[in-house]
Amino acid sequence: MTVTDPAATEETEQNSGSRTPLSSIFLALQTTYLFHMPAATVYFWKKAPFLRLLLALIAGIILQWYWQINPSIYWIIIITGIFLSCSFFFFPFFKRYKFSALNGTAVLSVFFALGALLAWHKDIRHHDQWLGKEYKAGDTVIVRLDEPLVEKTKSLKAIASVTYLLHQNSSRQASGKIIIYFKKDSSLQQLSYGSQIIFKKPLQEIRNSGNPGGFDYKRYSLFHGVTHQVYLKDDEFDILNSKKEKWLPAFIFRARERVINILRTNIKEDRELGLAEALLIGYKDDLDQSLVQSYTNTGVVHIIAISGLHLGLIYWILVQLLKPLHKRKKISWLRPLLIITGLWLFSLLAGAQPSVLRSALMFTCIVLGEGYTKRTSLFNTLSLSAFILLCINPYWLWDVGFQLSYTAVISIVIFMRPIYNWFYFKNRTIDFLWKLNAVTLAAQVFTVPFSIYHFHQFPNYFLLTNFVAVPLSSFILIGEIVLCIISFIPALALSAGKILSWLIRAMNSYVERVEAIRLSLWDGLHITIPQACLLITAAAAISYWLMEQSGKALKWGLLSLIGFLALRSLSFIVSDQQQKIIVYNIPQKRAVDFINGRKYFFWGDSSLLADDFARNFHLKPSRILHRIKPSGSISIYNREEPFLQYQSKKILLLDKAAAWQPAATKPTVDLLIISKNPTLYINRLVKSFAIRQIVIDGSNSSRKAALWKKDCDSLGIPCHDVTTEGAFVMTLR
Predict the structure, then answer these.
(1) Model pTM?
(2) 251-304 pLDDT per residue, tens
(3) Burial tier of 629 (Cβ tally within 10 Å: 0-12, 13-18, 19+)
(4) Residues 601 and 624 in one domain
(5) CATH code of the domain containing 205
(6) Which H helix or E strand runs over 401?
(7) Are residues 694 and 584 in the same domain?
(8) What residues contact 7, with CB distance under 8 A and at least 6 apart?
(9) Where are the beta strands (DSSP E) in 481-565?
(10) 714 lies in which domain range?
(11) Is there a single domain that holds both residue 616 and residue 721?
């Protein structure tokens, strides 16, 4: 059992003023029981009672999202659970222990139902005035911009809240958010946060591309309360005279704009400026996408995302600035108040993302707990912060940053000390550097399953990049804060900007050089949800075994690993036997994959192969899902333009006008793929061929696609339009 030396603790607190920013983060974790793990004799659940409540809350959120149960059932569960829990206190004292399990179940059922109700209420589709229920064709829409305009390649974008719907002479209130894309025009300079506009152009429901393995953008938008979108030209809307602003968002946007202007004035290079904005306040609209990919591929993308590292630095700076208050007892209460206020102001300025709020809550608990000698379990503190965040927004449970943030901290808490003990260094500098790498290694244990599931890759040299990038980014962040403070002195600020530009350029160059090293990235990884769950279960069980020396937990961990390996082996066997034809949904493009086993042959626009973004966004997820690699050896035979045969299927590819004579004996066409807006009449084509399936790809106009679908419906031919129905997948075996 590890025993804390009170004298050593007191000495550490007295010397806190000499700590570096990174060491302050380690100490913050120490003060929340990182290096003083509970002894094996201490029951884990008793040390973290809030964890059970959190798990019940999460179970309710998940159940409600996937099954959409009537909320009245949850109210019945809550009332019943509260009644049983209250009745428990009227039991004779000696019977309370006997029925304690019943009381625990009642309490957990209340929090389970609470999670489900929170998820139901947060779903905008259940609101009585949701625009999806109220909106009708021909309605005029009044909206309020919820953010400043964001510049895109071909348009300006903003999220807006719908306030009113007008129909003829009547008006009705509505709720819900939409995405507005504005055509670039000088008149848009009048628009800002709080501006109100009115338009009549029809709203379009947000849809997914429907490509296999593709990002679920519809669900992502729904979790943010956004369900519709519209594209407006300068003559399709009017700006109302009145503005509707809320003081807190207005203050945040003005503060962010002020910080961005300071950075843009003093940091001239675009790549360095984009990273500086993301590093300081989480503003990512100016980030170079290739640079983001490099940071992702080398395992340091967490530097760009505002997280615990950034809050740790802010915490250290505030501690140093407010140190004099600690010595004056009469006003010492101001110190924690100002530190907490500073942390939350920075969190709001950084966009109030889940990872930021989690870190702000954690450091708030640290600051509030500084006056208490009793240490609490970090698991309990983490559970409390996660519980609060999920009560604010239950859909943060699906947020990748939220998942990685908590799993990283938990992983560090469990595995940092065992990994750190692998080596012993007398030199303090070397010991500190090893501690930094031990933290990085420990964080990977629980985050790897999540990272592979979401990003399908693993950076092999993450230690090499973290070793340099993490401390360097800390100095850059401090430098940016100094730049903002001295911005009123132009000459000094410009010099600071040049130094920051050089540091950021050096960090970018280092990251890109590591990325260029052979085998720096293990790419194309794919695990299913059951496989990810088994991998996480194995890590959790083994970690419980490390904490409590539980042989049962070790068995569960090994069984989970065996189950993971069995499912993964089975998935490879299934992939080896697959045969498919996939017609992708890519705007203005033609793209078809012919799959045989774990190989594919691509037929489509050559421009897709040169466009990294389009290829990675539309095609790569499907190829990772199917575990396929390119091959020119797939047998596509008897090819006579515009026909080809793949396996037993005869395919007709039409991308230009063609005429065939009616035939008495019509040859069978198993699949007709229409591309590039050809002049084509289905009712004439069926006189020459017996067509079993028609697919209209994304390179066709919506007007022609609608006409072709109408003809197919009248002729009884199955027709699939990828633009409205998602990618077409024909399984041959």
Answers:
(1) 0.85
(2) 888 888 898 999 999 998 999 999 999 888 888 888 888 898 899 899 888 788
(3) exposed
(4) yes
(5) 2.40.50.730
(6) helix 400-420
(7) yes
(8) none
(9) 521-523
(10) 580-731
(11) yes
